[in-house]
Amino acid sequence: MFDINKVPSQKGRIAIITGANAGLGEETSRIFAEKDMKVIMACRNQKRGEEAKRKILAKVPKADLEVMQLDLSSLESIQAFVEDYKSNYSKLDLLINNAGIMVPPLMRTKENFEIQFGVNHLGHFHLTNLLLPTITGTENSRIVILSSLAHQRGKIYFDDLNWEKSYSKWEAYGQSKLANLMFTLDLDEKLKASGHKTMSVGAHPGVARTSLARHFNKLTYLFLYPVFFFMTHTAEKGAMPTVMAALDDSVQGGEYFGPTGRKEMKGAPGRAEIMPHAKDKEVRDILWSVSEELSGKKFQIVK
Length: 303
Hints:
Blueprint: E1 14-18, H1 23-34, E2 38-43, H2 46-59, E3 64-69, H3 75-88, E4 94-97, H4 115-136, E5 142-146, H5 169-193, E6 199-203, H6 218-231, H7 235-247, E7 256-259, E8 269-271, H8 281-295
Parallel strand pairs: 1-2, 1-4, 2-3, 4-5, 5-6, 6-7
Antiparallel strand pairs: 7-8
């Protein structure tokens, strides 16, 4: 069983965590900081990022944290973030693709993609691509991509990826989270085929009490809260599968981690179940090609 207390100091290592200003990202940042890691808190809202940084420093005075602006709903912002990072750092040990948006009203990114697909999947796809030479050039590096239990019923709607014909916020969320897991698996296969040691690993938090649920209907949320509280766990516990995927020595590329309790909703971190449709090679190949086309840049995984 994974025990964070047995993980040695990570001094000298650098991690980028997207969406680090709240919830799972903030907790992951704090845990990494406790292990002496340099943490780049990549946040859309600089002010909220600085507030989260102050909260972490109050708990971990030794924390080495830097807030950098990153808006995953803008390919231009992603490009600017990567250029800024690479001008200051020559290595990257961990990329934690954590940021996400869940079941909002129909919204679109700067490039007019449906926001859940655009932020949760496509933004991280593009970010990973631009940072890949730096990551693969760093020994013992890993990429951790957050998916969700929602991948279990997810489907990729290639005939309407951007929900221009109709919009189901839950189906759009499931699509984005399935895409996250498919990207995890494909990326790891391609890294291995190219002879790279960098691993791509998936994780999900189960059902954690975070601000991700802010778009839920408030009356429904309040009515279900007693049951919701019983069936969920804290953001700190929800972050542990990500931490395990990033730091545990037993992890292999292409694996998937989540809570080990009933239906993977909460509990201690461990290996999680990948639904068979997430392994569908034909769908994954199409998704990869479409993602390259929409982001405007082919992946260059070259040894």
